[in-house]
Each structure stands twice: as structure tokens, then as C-alpha cells.
Design a protein that fits this description.
Elements lengths: L3 H9 L5 E3 L2 E2 L10 H15 L4 H4 E3 L6 E3 L8 H18 L6 H21 L3 H15 L3 E4 L22 E5 L3 E12 L6 E4 L14 E6 L5 E5 L25 E12 L3 E4 L5 H15 L2 H20 L5 H26 L2 E2 L5 E2 L2 H11 L2 H13 L2 H4 L3 H4 L5 H7 L8 H15 L2 H12 L4 H11 L2 H12 L11
Parallel strand pairs: 1-10, 5-8
Antiparallel strand pairs: 1-2, 3-4, 6-7, 7-11, 8-9, 9-12, 10-11, 13-14
Helix pairs in contact: 1-2, 4-8, 4-9, 5-6, 5-7, 7-10, 8-9, 8-11, 8-15, 9-10, 9-11, 10-17, 11-15, 15-16
The structure holds iron/sulfur cluster and fe (iii) ion (FE).
Amino acid sequence: MKTPQEYIESLRKLKLVVYMFGKKVENVVDDPIIRPSLNAVAMTYSLAQNPKYEDIMTAKSHLTGKKINRFTHIHQSVDDLVKKSKMGRLVGSLTGCCFQRCVGMDTLNALSITTYDIDVKHGTGYHKRFLKYLEYVQENDLVCDGAMTDPKGDRSLPPHKQADPDMFLRVVEEKKDGIVVRGAKAHQTGAVNSHEVIVMPTITMREEDRDYAISFALPSDTTGITYIMGRQSCDTRKLEKGKIDQGNISFGGHEALIVFDDVFVPWDRVFMYKEYDFSGQLVEQFASYHRQSYACKVGVGDVLIGAVQTVAEYNGIEKASHVKDKIIEMNQLNETLYCGCIACASEGHREPSGTYYVNSLLANVHKQNVTRFPYEIARLAQDVAGGLVATCPSEDDLKSSEVGKWVKKYFQGTSSVPAENRIRILRLIENLTLGTAAVGYLTESLHGAGSPQAQRIMISRLVNMKDKQKTAKKLAGVPVPDDEKEK
Ligand code: SF4
Ligand code: FE
């Protein structure tokens, strides 16, 4: 396993082509806007080195028997799935942001199932190829960016009917030694902190879309790949000399658009090639695993609740019954989310490939709750924290030789706590509910791992409605037609 320092040094060796604010980023690792997101990924390496977290953060490779970082592990039991949920909460609670490494873990696990199933049906050799690649990832303790979301153009049209055929990523040329791909993947979490990018299709496809039904892995700095960084609310505060106005002084997340401009992929890194009949399965399995991964938001919720309790004490309102009640409500919502990610793991099962897969219905229900509860938790946080969350003067004013004394005097809460501490906590709440981390805690909760409607479709498909009706009719004495009777 890599140390955090080795991880950072390994990123320095990559020759990524990254653009931000219209300019090429020459030093990605030390860029002040990107660095906090790298620090959050590095936490997945440092926690794995810590004996206190060994059980949660590491696992035994089913390929080599060696101890590996759990983020590169293929789940071998229900216990592995439960530990994955606990790991998400743990890392979220220590970084207060999206730590980005789960997408790769979820992609590897989904591919471990789907490559096996494709081989069984079509007699192909993807699974062996995939396992060789997996061993490379485990041995080198790599970060993989799982890239699913295509730009999609006109949402009413399938890939092959788009006015611009590149709106979904596709193969444009087949060669003896590999394929050439073109297209883009949007909203890619942790893209420029990754060693590898693994591409999957984004929707269920039909035969006419077979050129789009592809999955493959590439080193993140392969020629022809360009990253264009997404902006986040308040991002340029990271360029300021002071740290207080950032809220979270060390950690953050990032997303990027990844463009594949006629990129060559050798055959040994291709895991699905035109088997359109398996695109839906791969999407569904990745999505279910990633919906489970939203255990991370429980950890981020822990940070927000801790900040709110602290600011309540700094304001001298922590004993007011309505404040206590609001904080109970925040905890109840947050722990309900925890129930969901533990439940879908506990109800997991073994797939023919040997990989353990979450209960898909419960994973979708969990993620549906994640699209709502963090918004309510954030609302309550702002309610208890007060308007100063959005109107507080800057760190420069706090430290100004002219007006600093007024900021300190008039933003003093309870007399035992310096105004600066109160401002720091308020900035953290601002960061989580309005600033850079709100991308992860709110918008990503809504749209990450699929927008709310995607989960509702899955829920309607996965519930056993017939069974429920049968019992209801039986209990009410409604006559059951012969074809509905138990055989
Ligand atoms: Fe992991 Fe959560 Fe970030 Fe997704 S949003 S990559 S699950 S930390
Ligand atoms: Fe996400």
C-alpha cells in the first residue's frame, strides 16, 4: 500500500492536460484550488496506514492474498459490504467533503460481475483481462476515476440519433491492437487526482447503439485526454492568503469534464466491446454500488452537526428547547441515512462471479433519502447558526488594524470564546451549505450516482408489488383468480 506521500509523488509523475479558468494548469498537484481535493483523497491512504482503522480501511486481496486498501478491493462477503459503508462514513467524517475514491471502487466491483456475466453468455474473455488489470490496480494502490456520465445532448434521443454523434462516448475506429474512442464524460469526481480512468456506458442501449456500448481503462495521462475543471461556488477563496474564509481549511472535492479526443485503447484494457445487451446491467450495478457509497454524506453530516452544536454553544443558545430539538432532528435524519447504507450492505448477496453485490432496492431507497435529507439538515444548520453564516465580514477585516477591533467586539458571542473561533465555525457551516463543499453535500447528494428520478424508476421496478397485492387481497377476503394462486 502507498503512503500518502507516495500517492502525492505518484501524481507528480503524471502528465495530465488540465485546464481551469481558460489556462493550462502546469502544476496540478500544488495548485491551490485543486490541492484540497488531493488532500481528501490522500486521507484514504493515511487512514489505511493507521492501525486504528485497519479493519475498516484495508482488506485481503482475493487475487494475491495481500493486504490492500479497501478502495481497491472486490467485496468477498456481506461483511466486506458493511465495512465499505462504514468506511464511507469514516472518511466523510474526517474530511467534511467528497473524498472521490469510491467511484473507482464501485466501477471495479461492477465490472467484476459484468465481465464474468458477458463471458458466460458470449464466450468472450473479458473477466480474465479484467482480473489482470485489477491486480495491477491493487498492487500499485491506484486511484481510479469511474467515468459514467456522458454529456447526452438531446435527452429525448438515443446515442445514435444525436445531431452530434459524440454526445455519448463511442468507438470511432477498430485496429488490430486496440480501438480508438471519442467523446466526453461530465461531472467526473476526483478526475485529476486519479491514476486511471475507467469508462462505462451511461444508459441501457440497443443494437443501433452498439458502438457506444463500450467499457475500458486508460492511464489518466494518456495522449488525447483533456480535463476541464468545474467551478465551485466560492472557489477563488482558496487563492486568498488567509484560510479562515475557506471554512474547511484543508479539504475539498472537485469535478471535471474529461474529453477523449480520438484516444487509443489497447485490447487488454477493453472490458466491454459492443455487447449492448450488458450495458444496462453494468449501469445498474455501478449505480447501486455507488448509491450505497453515499454513506459518505452521513460522515459529512456528522461534521455539519458538530459545527452546529458548537456554534449554538458559542452563541449561548444550546439549552433552548427548540435548538436542542432541531439538533435532534438533524441527528435523526443523518442516522436514518446511515440505516439505509448499512441495510443495503447487510442484505447483499453473492453473484455468480463471486463478488458480493448490495441489495439494489435498498441502495436505491437509501440514495433517494440522500437526495432529500442533507438539504433539510442544511436548512436546520442555517436556522440554528443564524444569518451571520451569510453576512460575516472577511478574514482580512477580522485582522485589519483599523476595523478588526469592531469585528471582534461585535461578533463576540458568549464571552469565553474568541470571535475568531465563532467565525471559523460559521465559515465551515457556510462552506458545507453554500460554498465549495455544498457541491458535494447538496448538489452531489441530489444528482450524484443518478438524479432522484433514476432511483424512483428503480424502486418501482424492484419492489415486489404482486406479493403485496396478493397478501392484501387474501387478508381482505378478495377472491384470488386461479392464475394468481400459489402453485
Ligand atoms: Fe465517494 Fe461520496 Fe464523493 Fe461519491 S460523493 S465519490 S460516494 S465521497
Ligand atoms: Fe458522487
